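Hi there,

I know you've been waiting on this one. I reran it after we fixed the sequence typo, so this is the corrected version. Both the input and the resulting structure follow.
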Amino acid sequence: MADLNPLLGVLNAMLTAPLGGESSGNFQAGLFPVESPIMGGMAAHLSIGDFSRATLMTVKALRHYHRIGLLEPAEIDDHTGYRRYSLEQLPVAQVIRRFRELDMPLEEIQSVLSAPDLDSRNQRITAHLSELERELSRTQSAAASLRDLIATPSPADTSGQIELRTVPAVSAAAITDTVDAEGSAAWLQEALAELRGVMAASNVPANGTAGGVYADEVFTEHRGQVTIFVPCLEPVRPEGRVTATLIPSTELAVIEHRGAPAEIDRAYGTLAAYVSRHAIATGGPIREYYLVGQQDTLDSADWRTEVGWPIFRTS
């Protein structure tokens, strides 16, 4: 992560800079001197229109910030209802504007401004900036994936990539839960770690590759039942979410995906096209088998996942 101290210093300086201080480009806190001609020699308050011009915020935004208590006027005329803002509020408004440019939600901005001390304020700012960096990384990954998809379209003949396989029933330690697709990757890693931990504590060795059984709703509704399992030589003692189960036999068209889960949709698309062209698709849950994963290497480029589409074999 980049050093955030300079940015935090700028934001904190904007909130604490004295009025009428030296200008620092657009970051000056004392935008109007005490004897500002815009105030006719009285720099006590600004109308909402002047405050809008001074902060580059719309009047509509200022009224909304007033309603939610984010930036309340210094005073409101009892007779006209006109809002007036003090010069001391200019730095706060400038900070709010910059936070909005960073897509910080209004409730988070309120939390920053109401922080009891400098450390608390910096922690809240840093947390948001860290999330922005993670979002930027996701965006860059998606853009790179799109470029790769455009540059290297799937070949017309994919039969060499796909294996038709009869999978026998297997005893396994398993965790079954209803999972949101958005959080499924993290849930998968947690479930696999829990399964292996329970098996190790029970001294039950694995007897095959870990896998997952995904109900149709995981894809059609982005929320559905998932069973993550590890084949084992003997039944595991139930503990926590872990139970002993029998993973039924099935027939699958299987393709291997190499790389991070974010790219696995290409494998799914290739597999779907194959079973559709050969008219061998049948009902049943999708399966995945995790040949190489996070527990083996942190380099996601080396991860290997088999995707299995249920089929009806004719030969």
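Quick highlight: Residues 118-151 form the longest helix (34 residues).

Best,
R. S.
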